[in-house]
Design a protein that fits this description.
The complex is a heterodimer. Chain A contains 13 helices and 9 strands. By secondary structure, chain A is of the alpha+beta class. Chain A has 2 domains: 202 residues, Alpha-Beta Plaits (2-Layer Sandwich), CATH 3.30.70.260; 158 residues, no CATH class. A 9-stranded antiparallel β-sheet of chain A has the order 2-3-4-5-1-6-7-9-8. In chain A, strand 2 and strand 3 form a beta hairpin. In chain A, helix 7 crosses helix 8. The longest helix of chain A has 31 residues. Chain B is built from 5 helices and 11 strands; from the N terminus they run E-H-E-E-E-E-H-H-E-E-E-H-H-E-E-E. In chain B, the strands form 2 sheets. A 9-stranded antiparallel β-sheet of chain B has the order 2-3-4-5-1-6-8-10-9. In chain B, strands 7-11 form a two-stranded antiparallel ribbon. The longest helix of chain B is centred in the middle third of the chain and has 15 residues. Chain B is α+β, with helices and mostly antiparallel strands. Classes of the chains: A alpha+beta, B alpha+beta. At the A-B interface, strand 5 of A face helix 5 of B.
């Protein structure tokens, strides 16, 4: 048995009575598009026309049930698609939809996520793929927002039917593009495959958890900008003290970064941010000469800010200091890129556990200091 | 490979004429050059049943059991995996498919397991709870799963049968032991 090669197909649902002449025309169009002869036909219950040969021949299935007829064109492989080009496949899709009088039709990748469902036949459309056709009785989607991130092109026929093309590779998953296009078009999508849904949810939640981008100053706002930056630098200097601030200023106190720090003060809180900056300054005081990138720096801030359930700020500052494991900045970068506060707390708990079981000369006094801070904190 | 079993379990609706079915199984097997031989194990359970043995010259005997139990008719091939080794997989598939074309079970599933992986009670009247490398879905189960969902679904191949049912191949391998994929839910 071989592994299935990826393929795409068409799924059309028509409310019109079956028409032998239309099916003949559709069959001719399929054969001409792919350069294949009609090899055989089969009657119901699996009525179908088979073109060419091999394990996965191009097949047009016809399924009559109740008041509708469904057509499924299967096994358009990448090789077949490339041999006749996207334009020809799109033209075939249009021909089949028009000749077979589809009410709703869509291209569907092997796997079947985008098949036309019974629910869609009765109500709202909830999937999007490379091509979709909305018959004349259907209200066409509104024009996508011009500012939208996706390219959706619609063509309206004289009878009101619409063919909508999403600019994607028909064989690629393109889940993010589908989600973005659906948002543009105002379509509530059916459930995505679980893995994809989890990834997209994680990205969405992270986006929601991250601070906004710093303000972009206009030229005529130079005075306001300089005042804001001076205020931020002054707050950091007060919080770090002269020695540590000296190390910090050398690498981080420049215009654009100060704008970003001001945003972090608002988003994460000024005290946790300054506590994190003290940790960073200590690292450089200890000999690290290369500056942290903005992602790692933000991770250091987030580590202190998001670990409130663990205890007082001073204790979290010490634990976060311990969690920065130079020269690898992977941990703060990881922290910055998670949306889950439990992960941040978990990382600092791990650091605490490491300190408690460590016998080095640095961790012993650190543990005693953390325990003192814990005792001093009212429960 | 001793200790592993390889086989097929099918469940048919109602009490079928098992002698007539077995007669047609004999004809199918003969057409595939599987000679009728005495079965290795006689059917001994209290339920009504009959077993026939088939083999190619010099190869181990494969028993087919047809039995009636609790108002349903069961088709069972259940052998040590080694017994199948001399047989070409294409032949095995053709044989399984032919048996299902003849008996048109509600559901039949091939397996390779450390123990019998039978169809659970109620499964044949509903949907598969899991899929292995090869299964036959009868017409009613095919309709429940949805013809179009099956055709477009995440299977390696769906072979429509004249019975109205279909054979569904997944990406599991015939020799995958203790691995089965959950039946996907379709929109």
């Amino acid at each position: 048995m071989t592994t299935a090669a990826p393929w795409i197909g068409f799924h059309l649902v028509s409310l019109a009575a079956p028409d032998a002449a239309a099916l003949d025309a559709a069959a001719r169009a399929v054969g001409e598009t792919f350069g294949l002869d009609l090899a055989r036909t089969a009657p119901p219950p699996w009525e179908r026309l088979v073109f060419g040969s091999g394990d996965a021949p191009v097949t047009l299935h016809v399924r009559r049930s109740g008041d509708r007829v469904e057509y499924a064109l299967l096994h358009v492989s990448r090789e077949r698609f490339d041999a006749c080009a996207a334009g020809a496949v799109e033209s075939l899709f249009e021909t089949l939809c028009r000749r077979l009088r589809a009410d709703l039709a869509r291209t569907v990748q092997h796997g079947g996520w985008a098949i036309v469902t019974a629910g869609e036949m009765q109500g709202a459309i909830d999937a999007i793929d490379w091509l979709q056709y909305l018959g004349p009785r259907r209200t066409a989607w509104s024009e996508p927002r011009p500012s939208g991130p996706t390219r959706v092109r619609a063509r309206v026929f004289e009878d009101g039917a619409t063919l909508v093309r999403l600019d994607v590779d028909p064989f690629a998953d393109s889940w993010r593009t589908r989600v973005a296009a659906a948002a543009d078009l105002g379509i509530p999508l059916r459930p995505l495959p679980e893995k994809v849904a989890n990834e997209i949810e994680s990205e969405t939640r992270l986006r929601e958890a991250l601070p906004p981008e710093p303000r972009v100053w206009r030229e005529d706002e130079a005075a306001e900008r300089d005042t804001s930056r001076a205020r931020t630098a002054s707050a950091i200097e007060r919080g770090l003290g002269p020695d540590l601030f000296g190390h910090f200023r050398r690498l981080y106190v420049d215009g654009a970064l100060l704008d970003r720090f001001a945003v972090w003060f608002t988003h994460y809180g000024q005290e946790p941010a300054i506590a994190a900056f003290r940790n960073v300054a200590r690292v450089h005081h200890g000999g690290a000469s290369e500056p942290f990138d903005a992602i790692a720096l933000e991770g250091c801030v987030k580590m202190v800010a998001w670990s409130t359930p663990l205890g007082p700020l001073a204790m979290r500052e010490m634990l976060a200091d311990h969690a920065i494991d130079l020269p690898d900045l992977g941990m703060p970068r990881y922290i910055r890129n998670t949306w889950d506060p439990d992960i941040v707390v978990g990382v600092l708990k791990l650091a605490y556990a490491a300190i408690r079981h460590c016998t080095c000369g640095k961790c012993g006094p650190l543990l005693r200091e953390i325990e003192r801070l814990e005792k001093e904190t009212p429960s | 490979m001793s200790g592993q079993v390889f086989g097929l379990h099918g469940v048919m609706a109602g009490e079928r004429d098992i002698d007539e079915l077995m007669r047609r199984f004999d004809a199918l097997s003969a057409a595939l050059s599987l000679d009728g031989v005495p079965p290795r194990q006689r059917h001994t359970s209290a339920a009504r049943g009959v077993s026939h043995g088939y083999a190619r010259a010099g190869a181990p005997t494969l028993d087919v059991l047809l039995g009636v139990d609790a108002g349903q008719t069961h088709l069972l091939i259940h052998e040590d995996r080694d017994a199948f080794e001399p047989y070409d997989l294409a032949l095995v598939v053709e044989w399984f498919t032919g048996l299902c074309d003849i008996s048109n079970p509600l559901f039949a599933r091939a397996y390779c397991r450390a123990s019998l992986d039978g169809i659970a009670i109620g499964e044949a009247e509903d949907r598969p709870r899991h899929l292995t490398w090869w299964q036959y879905l009868g017409p009613a189960m095919t309709a429940r799963m949805g013809h179009m969902s099956l055709l477009f679904g995440p299977y390696v191949r769906v072979d429509p049968r004249d019975t109205g049912g279909c054979v569904v191949w997944t990406s599991s391998q015939p020799t995958d032991v203790e691995i089965a994929v959950p039946a996907p839910t379709t929109p």
